[in-house]
Amino acid sequence: xxxxxxxxxxxxxxxxxxxxxxxxxxxxxxxxxxxxxxxxxxxxxxxxxxxxxxxxxxxxxxxxxxxxxxxxxxxxxxxxxxxxxxxxxxxxxxxxxxxxxxxxxxxxxxxxxxxxxxxxxxxxxxxxxxxxxxxxxxxxxxxxxxxxxxxxxxxxxxxxxxxxxxxxxxxxxxxxxxxxxxxxxxxxxxxxxxxxxxxxxxxxxxxxxxxxxxxxxxxxxxxxxxxxxxxxxxxxxxxxxxxxxxxxxxxxxxxxxxxxxxxxxxxxxxxxxxxxxxxxxxxxxxxxxxxxxxxxxxxxxxxxxxxxxxxxxxxxxxxxxxxxxxxxxxxxxxxxxxxxxxxxxxxxxxxxxxxxxxxxxxxxxxxxxxxxxxxxxxxxxxxxxxxxxxxxxxxxxxxxxxxxxxxxxxxxx
Length: 413
Known about the structure:
Layout: H1 22-32, H2 34-48, H3 50-53, H4 57-80, H5 89-100, H6 113-134, H7 137-185, H8 191-199, E1 207-214, H9 220-233, E2 237-243, E3 246-254, H10 257-264, E4 273-275, H11 286-298, E5 309-310, H12 315-320, H13 324-340, H14 345-354, H15 359-366, H16 370-384, H17 391-406
């Protein structure tokens, strides 16, 4: 390291002593050689770095601008700031602005931090290798020391540029993701929303399921990253947003909705966790979101509900809570199939419930054989997917039958 007050070496250009300071003289020589040094650095980059050869012509030209700005930045710093042999925070920020200001911010997404550090190191090496040829021996030692210090500071400035770019990109992605999820909830998924989802990495394959639950107290960025990690490990896409106290997760490429919701369950706070039915794609995902939102509001009425629970499993509670779509779904999927079937399935279920689910009591009341009752109950289960002997399913039957009658529909044809 040179002394804090270095002696003035003689001029290497033959100029009279005192005409130019050694630092100014060296800076002038180096400024005239910027083009040559930049060309040499780019040639070395092309020969040594495969990733550089794979860049497009436009991106290579931007890298060339960074190389040239870096060399000029060193020369200006050496001429104007090197006397103190230190760089302040202000000059560090100035380095970042001068070297990387010419390149578009999008370049940070083309070459990564490690590649940019390699770029900085290679440029410094090329300048250092050419110092002996450009400068006299009396100036080289002084410039060499400044070059090493500047190279270290430029590496720190590079890391700062990428950290800021990541922060800005993360904040922008979070806002974009929230807009996409909000559009799903509002049934406003037009082509622009689909394009935004694609920009966030949404693959657009397979069914889509919306999962709702209480948001945890952990930082959103951390939680969202964890959700996406769990989803990706299961081969799914994920979009996340927080709406009030709720966290909304939109999962794509879903094969089993219940299993898909279980994959991200751990990232929600305690309490009900519901998932909507599968939708064909993101454009149709509003139906899954609407069902999930209705189910979450009604989940408190079923304290023993599993976690996660399907929105369709909460149809009785949703219907009682005023969800018109749930009421109609129970009528369409339970009441009408029973009414339209041959036989007296609705009458049999009414009597069966009234007899405390006793097969023998029902048979006596209807004047039929107990096996006839059993057959009718199996027929009802085949038509609706609900087993009358299961308490939860019996509750669904009871609500569906009540809704059908309230709708003014007859019990038989």
